[in-house]
Amino acid sequence: MPYNATNNFATLKLNWPEELMQAARTSYPYTPMPFRRLLHWSMLLSTVLGFIILIPVATSGVKLENVLLTFGSSYSIGIAAPSLVFFLLRWTLPIAQRRNWSPIRAWSLAVFIGGLIASIIYAVIFGMFFIPAPERLNFIIFWTILGALLSASTTALFYTAERILNDLEKGRQALRKNAALSEELRLARMIQAGLLPDQAPEINGLAIAGGCFPAHEVGGDLLSYDLTADGRLCISVGDVTGKSVSAAMLMGITLGVLQSEIYDHAEPAAVLSELDRWLRTKRQTNNFVALQVALFNPQTSSMLLANAGQLAPLRRRQQTVEFLEIQGSLPLGMGPQMPHVQETISLQSGDLLVFYTDGVVEAQNANGEMWGFENLLDLVKTNPSKHPQELLQAILTAIRSYSHTIQPHDDITLVVVVVQ
Questions:
Q1: Cβ contact 204:230 at 8 Å
Q2: Quick one: 155 and 226 in the same domain?
Q3: Number of Cβ within a 10 Å radius of residue 390
Q4: Residue 41 and residue 125: Cα distance in Å, rounded?
């Protein structure tokens, strides 16, 4: 039966040491030493102490009376000390329970008081029989102070043990929380991976490679390939403000609304306008979406492009690489509401297009320097490959080589399209 605030001396059973041990086991990760074992070690130490005290006495001759008194005083304190401690625990443990202390603190208080009383008893007994009367008071004071210091040192050890156990418990709780959080993030990444396309679609006249690469477990970049009813392909590349779980949640919702709007509207500008209106109705005051929607028509070799705060894509035509700068707008949900426009981009066989988010050009090295647009332009211009997957891997390899051991701080989304 563990102790509670209503326990008192009258209601304690005779087997209270076992109850105290059980209370300590269930209340705190610390098991006190059983009474018999404590008494055994106390008697052993008392024997050692008796021999140590007997050494200076033996210099003047060993007498049976001195030996009996020496070991008698040692054994008396060896019995008194654990008995006092366990008696005091009947008072300190209920106090610890009421004040929400750990049993270790109750033990430390009992050991301090019990050890101090036991040292006084020892000093008095030994002083009365072995110390001359003129030196007796000083001897008793000396051993009382020494006993207080030893008891205080023991109490300090108890408190140190309590702090260590508290730190260990906090560490265990932190590990459990981290394990639970890691599992939740793993599931979130699985869900997000299910929302994003795992491979590019196959469509006549276009060769496509792309993917999203989160900087952490989950990210805020979005990528979508959507085929319209008349056979055109819509590629959407976007970036949601924020990091980790909050950005991933908004990304998932935005992706669902985006795909719905693409199904309802064939024009990229209309898709951006509807998505902007939806974000404003949800009052996402601190969250914005930079989004670019490109609608490819292989039959007319053209592309309708609308941009809301996203980086301009690259086009490589023969040996020339240029940004496809069009009239754009602020990210969706930011600033005053404004109309979104789209422009028609003519395409030729062999044209290579690169769509990307800011995680590509903002990748940093150990000195904090960004990879930048110039490196991206040079790589796209000098890389001879006409296969989109090869160029995609070349860009990712160059970014990893530049960053080296630096972990990416932003998500990377990259799409390479080759017009055939």
A1: no
A2: no
A3: 13
A4: 22
Confidence of residue 4 (pLDDT cuts 50, 70, 90): very low
pTM score: 0.61
Which structural domain range is residue 79 located in? 9-180
* 136 and 222 housed in the same domain: no
Where is the domain boundary, 180, 206, 232? 180
255 and 145 in a common domain? no
What length does the chain have? 420
Residue that finishes a domain, picked among 122, 149, 180: 180
Within a domain: 61: yes
Report if residue 3 sits inside a domain: no
Cα 390 to Cα 150: distance, rounded to the nearest angstrom: 75
Domain count, the chain: 2
Residue 138 and residue 201 in one domain: no
pLDDT at 70: 66
pLDDT digits (tens, 9 = 90+) for 321-379: 999 999 888 898 887 888 899 999 999 999 999 999 999 999 998 888 999 999 999 99
pLDDT computed for residue 30 by the predictor: 34
Task: Give bridge partners of residue 420 from the DSSP assignment.
Answer: none
Whether 1 is in a domain gets the answer no
* Max CA separation in the chain (angstroms): 120
For residues 253 and 303, membership in a common domain is answered with yes
Contact 39, 82 (CB under 8 A): yes
Give the rounded percent of residues in the chain with a pLDDT score beyond 70: 78
- pLDDT the model gives residue 308: 92
Residue 14 pLDDT: 38
What digits encode the pLDDT tens for the residues 8-23?
Answer: 333 333 344 444 444 4
Are 357 and 413 a contacting pair, CB within 8 Å? yes
Domain assignment present for 117:
yes
Tokens of 300: 């007319």
Q: Beta-strand (E) ranges in 167-220?
A: 206-213
Residue-level pLDDT at 3: 38
410, 218 contact by CB (below 8 A): no
Same domain, 176 and 201: no
pLDDT tens, position by position, 375-420 = 999 999 999 888 999 999 999 999 999 988 888 878 899 999 999 8
Sheet holding 206-213, edge to edge: 206-213, 412-419, 352-356, 314-317, 320-323
Domain check: are 171 and 210 in the same one?
A: no
CATH code for the domain in which residue 382 is found: 3.60.40.10
CB 242 within 8 A of CB 220: yes
